[in-house]
Design brief:
This protein has helices at 14-24, 29-38, 43-61, and strands at residues 2-10, 72-81, 85-90, 96-101, 104-112. The chain is an alpha+beta fold. It has a single domain (2-112), classed as Alpha-Beta Complex (Ribosomal Protein L22, Chain A). The strands form 2 sheets. Strands 1-5-2 form a 3-stranded antiparallel beta sheet. Strands 3-4 form a two-stranded antiparallel sheet. The longest helix is centred in the middle third of the chain and has 19 residues, at 43-61. The radius of gyration is 18 Å and the shape is elongated.
């Protein structure tokens, strides 16, 4: 039993998201949500919202199962790079410097352990 949620075109770089994702990988959902809620990183807000969506998807798909968030585990999380927004900023001596604003695609898969 598993469910997933995806968030696409998030305005943060994949490298910054991976720092937070490495902390929640393999934990149960309740511990992961507590970590994300109190983390000072900006990307933890995006990840928390997507994780809550995955939990809602799980409970919607498996209504008959009596599971709590303590019995759900983060099975798989990964982030891929999205399109890069290229902007230009004026630099010294009349030159132009390129600013690359990166975006991310986030996927979270959670799994429920059967009590049987």
């Amino acid at each position: 039993m598993e469910a997933q949620a995806k968030a696409r075109f998030l305005r943060t770089s994949p490298l910054k998201m991976r720092r937070v994702l490495n902390e929640i990988r393999g934990r149960n959902v309740e511990e992961a949500l507590n970590y994300l809620h109190f983390s000072p990183k900006r990307s933890s807000d995006f990840i928390e919202k997507t994780m809550r969506s995955a939990v809602a998807n799980f409970f919607e798909a498996y209504e008959g199962k009596k599971l709590t968030t303590r019995e759900l585990f983060v099975k798989h999380v990964h982030v891929d790079g999205g399109p890069v927004l290229r902007r230009f900023r004026s630099m010294s001596m009349g030159r132009v410097g390129r600013v690359r604003r990166r975006t991310s695609h986030l996927t979270i898969v959670i799994e429920g352990k059967d009590k049987e």
